[in-house]
Design goal:
The protein starts with 10 loop residues before the first helix and ends with a helix. It has 254 residues and is mostly helical. The protein has a two-stranded antiparallel sheet with strand order 1-2. The radius of gyration is 23 Å and the shape is globular. The relative contact order is 0.15. Strand 1 and strand 2 form a beta hairpin. The longest helix is centred in the first third of the chain and has 24 residues, at 11-34. The protein has helices spanning 11-34, 68-73, 94-109, 136-146, 178-181, 185-191, 220-229, 238-253, and strands at 117-122, 125-129, 132-134, 150-151, 176-177, 197-199. Pfam families: Folate_rec (PF03024). InterPro entries: Folate_rcpt, Folate_rcpt-like. This is Folate receptor-like domain-containing protein.
Length: 254
């Protein structure tokens, strides 16, 4: 005779429910990281269309983490964005300067940097990018166009003299030829912003590296999706998920 009461859910059933929830949670995390903005000084809270992005930042206009005003300031040698002086060892050549403008547009505007965003404890930002895989063409063209310029430091994130409100070379640092400070393209791309980028031998047609320069549809979304799909949380085995579920269930049952 049917008593009308439901059979109790077994522990095994609860484990597999938790496994499913963990899998769904990892998928949701991936989707969130695919289209997001950093918690940094000038970034928008969420990405979205910005039809009036300026010059070199225009490729991000369909979906951007920067505002039109930020994109304009990215092109200004005396920008209020970070009060950073590109001309700290004489006037930077235009062919070199265009790469730093593009680098700024990429940093400020990109909505597909989620796989490489890390939390930091800094007064001017709460998050940064770390080890973004840069396409070989972008890195080498940047270095080639700057190799006749001069600088006094290898890591441009730290160690400047800011007493005037703009960065100046510290007293002990002498201006040297670019190639003396950055002997190779790899050293420049990885060291200049303290490992924000990772040098790769990948071509911009590989779909496995991020492009600073592009036209048309943003190719970096597919790259970010690839790395998110190959992130550690996507490779958890059923056994490891079951272990996590077991631990979660233990907490629930306490």
């Amino acid at each position: 005779m049917n008593s009308g009461t439901a059979a109790p859910i077994s522990c095994r059933d609860m484990w597999w429910v938790l496994v499913l929830l963990l899998s769904l949670a990892s998928r949701a995390l991936s989707l969130e990281k695919l289209n997001m903005c950093m918690d940094a000084k000038h970034h928008k809270k969420e990405p979205g269309a910005e039809g009036q992005l300026y010059q070199q930042c225009a490729p991000w206009r369909d979906n951007a983490c920067c505002t039109a005003n930020t994109s304009a300031e990215a092109h200004d040698d005396n920008s209020y964005l970070y009060n950073f002086n590109w001309n700290h060892c004489g006037i930077m050549t235009p062919k070199c300067n265009k790469h730093f403008i593009q680098d700024t547009c990429f940093y400020e505007c990109s909505p597909h940097l989620g796989p490489w965003i890390q939390q930091v404890d800094q007064s001017w930002r709460k998050e940064r990018i770390l080890h973004v895989p840069l396409c070989q063409e972008d890195c080498h063209s940047w270095w080639d166009d700057c190799k006749d310029d001069f600088t006094c430091k290898q890591d441009w994130h730290y160690g400047w003299d800011w007493t005037t409100g703009h960065n100046r070379c510290p007293a002990e640092a002498k201006c040297r030829k670019w190639t003396d400070v950055f002997p190779t393209a790899q050293i420049m791309c990885e060291k200049i912003w303290s490992d924000s980028y990772s040098y790769t031998t990948l071509s911009n047609s590989s779909g496995r590296c991020m492009q600073l320069w592009f036209t048309g549809k943003n190719p970096n979304e597919k790259v970010a999706e690839y790395y998110l799909n190959h992130a550690p949380w996507q490779h958890a085995t059923p056994a490891s998920l079951l272990l996590l579920a077991t631990m979660s269930l233990s907490v629930v049952l306490l």
